[in-house]
């Protein structure tokens, strides 16, 4: 079976020194590069927000980062400004071997709606087009890595499983935010969806 590797949001703003850093986020880069070298189908996702994106707390009166609010009719975490289109923070970590990518998928471009998953916007209806691309390549199984495990990685894995792919998350090539029970909730959602979580892994 053909397996695709999906590398989720390994961008400067999610690494130490960025606007929304995930602890130790840059430490996964060498392993991600090794996995990219092994993969037959390689997808890199990239948060790509307009400055006035609805997920930014600064765009909600009286809100603070990490409060909860409504974005496009969906309740979610309101974030610090991050991964703004065309900024250094939105670029991939410089150590990532991006030249190996078959497809770079930019998500979160709609200012009124966020997109954690690589497959759907957060309304759970609007597709990104990734499913069609993978099927055109004959992909049946998916390995997911990147940042952050408890948000965009988990959402991507759960959606992939829901679309009928056999899915595994390689945990050693992920890092989590782990705030307010988010990691526990993400693990439960992935388990319910039938996603396999592997501590170590190769392709």
Structure write-up:
- The longest helix has 14 residues, at 149-162.
- The chain starts with a strand and ends in a 5-residue tail after the last strand.
- By secondary structure, the chain is α/β, with parallel strands linked by helices.
- Helix 3 (149-162) runs parallel beside helix 4 (182-193).
- The strands form two sheets. A six-stranded parallel sheet has the order 5-2-1-6-7-8.
- It has one domain (2-49, 83-198): Isochorismatase-like (Rossmann fold).
- Helix content is 21%, strand content 24%.
- It is globular and about 50 Å long.
- Strand 1 (2-8), helix 1 (29-38) and strand 2 (41-47) form a beta-alpha-beta unit.
Structural class computed from helices and strand pairing = alpha/beta
How is the CATH topology named?
A: Rossmann fold
Tell me about the largest β-sheet.
6 strands, parallel
Mean pLDDT: 96
Question: Which spans have pLDDT < 50 for at least 5 consecutive residues?
Answer: none
Label the overall shape: globular
Cα(first) to Cα(last) distance is 11 Å
Number of alpha- plus pi-helical segments? 4
What is the helix fraction of residues, given as a range? 10-25%
Please report which band the strand proportion falls in: under 5%, 5-15%, 15-25%, 25-35%, 35-45% or over 45%.
15-25%
Question: What quaternary form is this?
Answer: single chain
CATH H-level superfamily title: Isochorismatase-like
| Order of strands in the sheet with most strands | 5-2-1-6-7-8
How many domains, as an integer?
1
Would you report the number of β strands?
8
Helix and strand succession?
EHEEEEHEHEHE
**Any idea of the CATH class?**
Alpha Beta
CATH architecture: 3-Layer(aba) Sandwich
Cα-based radius of gyration, to the nearest Å: 16 Å
């Amino acid at each position: 079976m053909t397996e695709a590797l999906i590398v989720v949001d390994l961008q400067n703003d999610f690494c130490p020194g960025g606007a929304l850093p995930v602890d130790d986020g840059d430490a996964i880069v060498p392993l991600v590069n090794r996995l990219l070298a092994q993969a037959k189908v390689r997808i890199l996702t990239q948060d790509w927000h307009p400055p006035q994106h609805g997920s930014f707390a600064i765009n909600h009166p009286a809100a603070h980062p990490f409060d909860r609010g409504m974005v496009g009719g969906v309740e979610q975490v309101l974030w610090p400004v991050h991964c703004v289109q065309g900024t250094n923070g939105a670029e991939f970590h410089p150590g990532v071997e991006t030249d190996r990518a078959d497809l770079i998928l930019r998500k979160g471009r709609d200012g009124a709606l966020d997109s954690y998953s690589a497959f759907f916007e957060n309304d759970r209806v609007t597709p990104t087009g990734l499913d069609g691309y993978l099927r055109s390549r004959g992909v049946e199984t998916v390995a997911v890595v990147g940042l952050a495990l408890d948000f965009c990685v988990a959402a991507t894995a759960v959606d992939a499983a829901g679309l009928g792919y056999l899915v595994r998350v390689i945990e050693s090539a992920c890092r989590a935010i782990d705030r307010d029970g988010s990691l526990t909730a993400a693990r439960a959602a992935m388990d319910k969806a039938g996603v396999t979580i592997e501590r170590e892994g190769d392709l």
